[in-house]
Amino acid sequence: MNGSSSDQMTKSAGNFELFLLNESAGEKKITEKPFAGMSNTSDFVILKEDHTIGNLLSEHFKQHPHVMMAGYKVAHPNVPEVLIRLQTDGTVTPREVFIDVCKQLVASLGQLAQNFTREYELRRMATAGDHDNAPGGGANGKP
């Protein structure tokens, strides 16, 4: 055998480090640091994420009425963290906008999941009905 099973277990456990937080070491998913260079601006660091979440959040922040500027960057492809800079007009804090946009996204994605499931089930029932009405075919090929 080329490698021991313990080597393979170690390698596969290491793969999970790319997206699971080490809570025992005090890792937090999101941290906020106020940005001193601009008023009403914060930098949010999101661990174990990449361009997908950075772009999604950044684009939704830009649609928020109280956001003046929003952008993100991934420092290096091998470092799974995203930095999002968010500036508001001062009527709400960047943290409040961050929470509000996340709640809206969760609601939107929940609605998408419901719609997808409904359409999938309807299509499955329609396909099953087509099979039942086929010549010579009820359930198990019996009329």
Describe the secondary-structure layout.
Layout: H1 5-16, E1 30-34, E2 41-47, H2 51-63, E3 67-73, E4 81-88, H3 94-132
Antiparallel strand pairs: 1-2, 2-4, 3-4
Give an overview of the whole structure.
This protein has helices at 5-16, 51-63, 94-132; strands at 30-34, 41-47, 67-73, 81-88. It has 143 residues and is of the alpha+beta class. A 4-stranded antiparallel β-sheet has the order 1-2-4-3, covered by helices on one side. A hairpin with a 6-residue loop joins strand 1 and strand 2.
Task: Briefly summarize what is shown.
The chain is α+β, with helices and mostly antiparallel strands and 143 residues long.
Counting DSSP H or I runs of 4 or more residues, the number of helices is 3
Lateral strand order in the biggest sheet: 1-2-4-3
Structure classification: alpha+beta
* Unreliable spans: 4-11
Give the overall silhouette: elongated
Q: H/E order of the elements? A: HEEHEEH
Distance between the termini: 56 Å
Strand content: 15-25%
Radius of gyration: 24 Å
**How many DSSP-defined strands?**
4
Biggest pleated sheet: 4 strands, antiparallel
Mean pLDDT: 85
Helix content: 40-55%
